[in-house]
């Protein structure tokens, strides 16, 4: 294989190259073949090939040296050429500098010459213009306008320019000598102004924007330019207000004419501001006045709804109009427009709002009490009433005769929803219609009305009625409705609290009125909690009183000391059955009437009193062996009933009572062992002794010695 430079082109692999060389050598293959492997021949081939590679290397080396010499030669030639080009560039740059200086010199001369020509031409032009004006002035002096510019309607623009200048000149002339000519110029000035305005009017009707712009540009220097703007504003409104929605029509109008105003007038922001001012002061103000005045005196509710709706729609319209260019301070401008319309209505808004809210709240309550055929009682504060309240809080005694409400709580979800709905709407109107500085104060006034009618006149009144309706503890079977009052009062107060947080707090959160509102709310809560606590306590007393009545009527002395010990067929006494049935109902009623931690608190108190009643009741009897077993069965039922409380303390008390009852039946020798049991070990010995004394065999078995 002849060695050539092409064999070493990239990518080059030495192993592959040698393998290929060996493979092509006869007898050089490593894997056998037609000829046997011949190492000598392969070595000879390698030696020859190495010689060829050396010769190839020498040839390439000579070629490289030749190319390097050629490259060096060309580099020297290129460097020489670059130096020559740099010299040429420097020469050209010098020429450019000289040319620039020459051009600057010529330009200075030309400017100077231009200034001189202008200095000569300007007076000449002024003289020519003055000559023309004098010519036209002479025509007015002669009383006959012959120039084509005044007689040709097509040249109204040129005529307007001339008459405007003549009008300015005429104002400087003495009146006594030039009264007539001044009158003629003024008349012509007025005629041309009217013609231009009429032309503008016609062009607007035809929709020719370019012509409108041209005429407006001419009228810009006339006194009647503002009248031109008025004409435009009047005409653009003629094709707009066809629908019933004045506010949407106004937004559409401004959106439509905004681009047109920019193309026609040189000060579009002033024209747009004047258009909006015109719409607000004429269209909107008249519309709003008609809507509000017709119901202001006759229907306060509709008046407030209309005021809120119209004010909201007006402010929304102003927000849309703020997108247009109306000058430097468009927000102040739009606020001024809104204030101009509503100021007379907003000044006394809160008086009307609070007056309506009081009337409406009073009517809602009165309508409810009328539907119940209820004549509202007076529970006013001060004097005797305050004294009664303090006595009731300290002694928990009913003051005055109990009244029969026939199960009526005098709390209505519908009434509450109506009052809260009216107040929520009042808060929304207050937020929108009150000045930012008056907002917290106005919101507080609305809140006090809500407190007065919802919390005081409705909830507090119902609590007073509920307290008065609670029977005395010695009543035999009087129904208890106060827990129904509690349940509804809790629900209502949650709604009241939600409105306080959702609608009042955002209005007063950053003002000193927040503290007043929180204090007011706290006072209302505390006042109602006192009455709720009092009512619940008295209700629990009534429950215990009724249970005591059941026990006194149903429990017989022979229940626990039967005449025939061997003929006791009942598992527990009738009194126990009735008491447990009654307690189960009251537990469920308590659980349904309370919420949160109040459930556990009230049931704990009820359970403790229930335990105390049974404990004291059991200590009234003497127990035989069989009677003691029956007492244990009764207490087991009471304990099962106590589980429904789901209060660990109550269950623990009845577990202890059950253990105490075991002392009634245990063998005398086992008394000490039972007393040291889990439930009794921590009890006072006097309590244990008191129970043991109830046994019929206490004296005969000399059981007292176990406690000596």
UniProtKB/TrEMBL annotation:
Keywords: Coiled coil, Exocytosis, Transport
Exocyst complex component Sec10 N-terminal domain segment(s): 39-146
Residue ranges of every copy of the Exocyst complex component Sec10-like alpha-helical bundle domain listed in the record: 158-706
GO CC annotations on file: exocyst
Annotated InterPro entries: Sec10-like, Sec10_HB, Sec10_N
Entry coiled-coil feature ranges: 50-88
Top-level lineage group: Eukaryota
GO biological process: exocytosis; Golgi to plasma membrane transport
Pfam families noted in UniProt: Sec10_HB, Sec10_N
Family: Belongs to the SEC10 family.
Protein name, entry field: Exocyst complex component 5
């Amino acid at each position: 294989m002849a060695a050539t430079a092409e064999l070493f082109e990239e990518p080059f692999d030495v192993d592959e190259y040698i393998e290929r060389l060996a493979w092509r050598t006869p007898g050089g293959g490593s894997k056998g073949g037609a000829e046997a492997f011949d190492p000598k021949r392969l070595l000879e081939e390698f030696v020859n090939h190495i010689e060829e590679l050396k010769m190839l290397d020498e040839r390439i080396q000579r070629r490289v040296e030749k190319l390097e010499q050629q490259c060096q030669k060309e580099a020297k030639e290129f460097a020489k050429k670059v130096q020559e080009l740099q010299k040429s560039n420097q020469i050209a740059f010098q020429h450019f500098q000289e040319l620039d200086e020459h051009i600057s010199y010529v330009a200075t001369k030309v400017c100077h010459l231009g200034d001189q020509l202008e200095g000569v031409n300007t007076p000449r032009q002024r003289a020519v213009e003055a000559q023309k004006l004098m010519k036209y002035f002479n025509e007015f002096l002669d009383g006959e306008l012959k120039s084509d510019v005044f007689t040709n309607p097509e040249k109204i623009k040129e005529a307007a320019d001339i008459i405007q200048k003549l009008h300015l000149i005429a104002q400087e002339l003495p009146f006594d000598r030039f009264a007539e000519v001044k009158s003629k110029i003024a008349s012509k000035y007025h005629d041309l102004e009217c013609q231009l305005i009429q032309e503008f009017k016609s062009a607007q009707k035809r929709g020719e924007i370019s012509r409108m712009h041209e005429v407006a540009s001419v009228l810009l220097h006339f006194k009647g330019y503002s009248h031109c703007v008025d004409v435009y504003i009047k005409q653009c409104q003629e094709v707009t207000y066809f629908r019933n929605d004045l506010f949407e029509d106004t937004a559409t109008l401004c959106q439509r004419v905004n681009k047109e105003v920019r193309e026609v007038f040189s000060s579009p922001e002033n024209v747009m501001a004047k258009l909006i001012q015109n719409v607000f002061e004429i269209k909107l103000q008249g519309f709003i006045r008609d809507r509000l005045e017709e119901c202001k005196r006759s229907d306060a509710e509709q008046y407030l709804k209309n005021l809120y709706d119209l004010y909201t729609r007006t402010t929304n319209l102003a927000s849309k109009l703020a997108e247009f260019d109306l000058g430097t301070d468009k927000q102040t401008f739009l606020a001024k427009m809104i204030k101009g319309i509503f100021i007379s209505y907003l000044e006394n808004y809160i008086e009307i709002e609070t007056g309506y809210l009081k009337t409406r709240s009073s009517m809602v309550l009165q309508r409810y009490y009328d539907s119940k055929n209820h004549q509202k009682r007076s529970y006013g504060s001060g004097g005797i009433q305050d004294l009664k309240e303090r006595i009731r809080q300290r002694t928990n005694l009913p003051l005055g005769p109990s009244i029969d409400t026939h199960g009526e709580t005098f709390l209505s979800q519908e009434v509450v929803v109506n009052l809260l709905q009216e107040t929520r709407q009042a808060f929304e109107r207050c937020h929108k219609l009150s000045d930012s500085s008056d907002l917290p104060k106005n919101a507080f006034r609305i809140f006090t009305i809500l407190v007065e009618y919802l919390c005081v006149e409705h909830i507090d009144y119902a609590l007073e009625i509920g307290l008065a309706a609670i029977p005395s503890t010695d009543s035999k079977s009087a129904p208890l409705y106060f827990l129904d009052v509690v349940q509804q009062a809790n629900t209502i107060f949650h709604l009241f609290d939600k409105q306080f947080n959702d609608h009042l707090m955002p209005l007063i959160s950053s003002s000193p009125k927040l503290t007043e509102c929180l204090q007011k709310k706290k006072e209302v809560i505390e006042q109602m909690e006192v009455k709720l606590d009092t009512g619940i306590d008295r209700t629990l007393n009534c429950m215990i009183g009724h249970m005591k009545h059941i026990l006194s009527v149903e429990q017989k002395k022979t229940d626990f000391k039967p005449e025939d010990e061997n003929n006791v067929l009942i598992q527990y006494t009738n009194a126990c059955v009735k008491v447990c049935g009654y307690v189960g109902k009251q537990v469920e009623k308590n659980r349904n009437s309370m919420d949160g931690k109040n459930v556990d608190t009230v049931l704990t108190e009820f359970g403790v009193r229930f335990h105390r009643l049974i404990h004291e009741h059991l200590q009234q009897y003497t127990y035989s062996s069989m009677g003691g077993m029956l007492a244990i069965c009764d207490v087991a039922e009471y304990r099962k009933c106590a589980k429904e409380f789901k209060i660990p303390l109550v269950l623990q008390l009845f577990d202890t009572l059950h253990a105490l009852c075991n002392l009634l039946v245990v063998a005398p020798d086992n008394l000490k062992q039972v007393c040291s049991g889990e439930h009794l070990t921590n009890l006072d010995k006097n309590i244990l002794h008191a129970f043991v004394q109830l046994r019929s065999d206490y004296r005969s078995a000399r059981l007292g010695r176990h406690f000596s």
